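Reopening this one. Same input as before:
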Amino acid sequence: MTSRLLMPWRVRRDGDSPASRVSGGVAATAILDWKDPAILALRNDARSLAAAPNDSRALLLMAHGLIVERVRPVYALDDAQPASRTLALGRGSCSQRLGLLESVARSAGISTRVRGLLVNGRFWYSRFSWLRFAVPDEVLLAWPEFWLDDEWVDASALFGPLDAASSGPRFSNDDGETLFDAVARGAVDWDGVTSTPTSCSSCDLSGEVLADLGRFNSRDELFTCHGQTLCRTARTLGGPVMSRWSAGAGATV
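Same output, byte for byte:
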C-alpha cells in the first residue's frame, strides 16, 4: 500500500482548474535559471548540431538528446533544484531533467508552461518493490508544454503526434528508462487520446492520473501552489542518498 507519511501534510491538492488558460513565458526563474553560462552553452551545442538550427522543435529534440547523454538519471528528490545545478552535477531526476529542457527552451525564446498532474503512487511500485511502504499516495508531476508553431505542444508530442495512430511499447516504469527518456521512442499519453472507443492503447496512462491541477506559468509556480511530492524532511534526509542512486538500479520519477 502507498503512504502519506512523507508527503507535505498542509498541502491541499485539488484539480479545480484544468481548463484555465495560462500564457507561460520565457523569463528565467529560480528553477529555470537559463541565464547560467552552462545552460547557454548547452543550447548553443544543440543549435549547432540540430538538422535545422533555426527550427525550434529541432533545437528541442537535439537538446533532449544531449541531456540524455550528459545528465545521468537518478532518484533525486528536490523538484525545485535549479536547472544549472542539475547540469553541473551531471545527474538528475526525470523532473529535474525536464526542467533543464525547459530552461534550454526559454533560453532560445521558446515559451514554456507546465501542467500539474497527480499520478497514482502505485505507478511506481515496480521500481520500489522493497520500499512500497514509503511510496507516496500521489506523485506530483510537472509536465511541460512548449509554444511551437503557434500552439502548445505537450512534451509527449515533441517527437511526433499524439493520437490514436501513435504506437510504441508502453512505458512500464519498471526498468532503467524514465519518462524523460520514454518520450523519444513512444507516446506517453496522460489523457487517453491514443485509445479508441473500442480499444485501449498500450501508451494510454490516463488511468494512473488521479487529478489534473491545470496549467501553470512555470514549475516554480506549480510547486509554490501545491508543494512537492515529498515533505521537506524527507527531501533533506533522503536526498543526498537517493540523488546518487542510478535509474539503472531502480529508476526515478
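So the earlier flakiness isn't reproducible anymore. For the record, The beta strands are 72-73, 91-92, 112-120, 138-148, 151-154, 209-216.
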